[in-house]
Amino acid sequence: MEAAERNVSRVLIRxxxxxxxxxxxxxxxxxxxxxxxxxxxxxxxDGRCNIEFGNVDVQSRFIFFVDIWTTVLDLKWRYKMTVFIxxxxxxxxxxxxxWYVVAYVHxxxxxxxxxxxxxxxxxxxxxxxxxxxxxxxxxxxxGYGFRFVTEQCATAIFLLIFQSILGVIxxxxxxxxxxxxxxxxxxxxxTITFSxxxxxxxxxxxxxxxxxxxxxxxxxxxxxxxxxxxxKTTITPxxxxxxxxxTNINFVxxxxxxxxxxxxxxxxxxxxxxxxxxFHMAAETLxxxxxxxxxxxxxxxxxxxxxxxxxxxxxxxxxLWGYRFVPIVSKTKEGKxxxxxxxxxxxxxxxTPHCAMCLYNEKDTRARxxxxxxNPNFVLSEVDETDDTQM
Length: 391
Fold this sequence. Notes:
Blueprint lengths: L1 H35 L21 H4 L1 H4 L1 H7 L2 H29 L22 H12 L14 H29 L2 H5 L2 E3 L3 E6 L2 E10 L5 E15 L5 E9 L16 E6 L19 E11 L5 E8 L4 E3 L1 E3 L3 E3 L5 E3 L7 E3 L6 H15 L21
Parallel strand pairs: 2-9
Antiparallel strand pairs: 1-3, 2-3, 3-6, 4-5, 4-7, 7-8, 10-13, 11-12
Helix pairs in contact: 4-7, 5-6, 5-7
């Protein structure tokens, strides 16, 4: 009995050990080795482009300063605020230095021991700190009344006019840049969301690739237009390798692909027909494909009349063959339409042909069965009937 119990214990321990090592191996493959095998994406899920420019000429870099407005708008917030603070502090300090030079040249500083009846260019500018404060008061038009320009120096009057004009330009540019940065349509695009996965299933008797998109705001996108690009590496007949070869993918809803009534989540679909690049793919070969499907949604923001673009991408691992999306729109007892975003990205498995070619071959077979086709190999042979029956 003891020997049998020991054997049973050893078997249990061995089974538990093997199961534990199996789970550990699966965890390492998924979290460590799996990350190294992630496909490179040109467009991330939130629409950012994963591309960098190398070996750009120095002369080309100076072109960005020609269009300084767009350059400042494209800066990140931390760099924009650095430019904002540097522009004001730098101009205040620069003009403060100029005011100090005016006082020094006119010998209004205390180290020159000016007489009491002498009228200075700027009252109460007795040092660099006072000159900086007067520059700040002039440019931001505070005007405390303690420091002011007199009519003694034409240079001081000219410098006052020049700083006032330049201060207005700096204020207008920097405040306008921050306002334009805040109101850019990119922020509106954040409230447009796509499903994390795309599905392939039958819709209206056709094999389709379906994607769900939703507008999280009640304000509409006017003149919405949706389309896609399939990016993959191709080799031309001449032997040229094109890494980012683009193929147009037409997406439609039941009313077309333009002027979308985007008040509720929409399920857009692409019909996989003979002209589709997905036609020769199958459920078994889809994960081994190397492509990236980029989906674009263009529209005009209703509240600001600004044009915005939302984009996302899907790799083969994010395309589920044989699934469809769960319905999310329902009608309440009060007569309102309710959208349940809890089921926005959920899918259910449905019966689907494992390839588009199989579906069309099946349809052709059914069509032939309904129609009559002559068999060219069929030969009708006539048989002479003889009465061999004997009475």
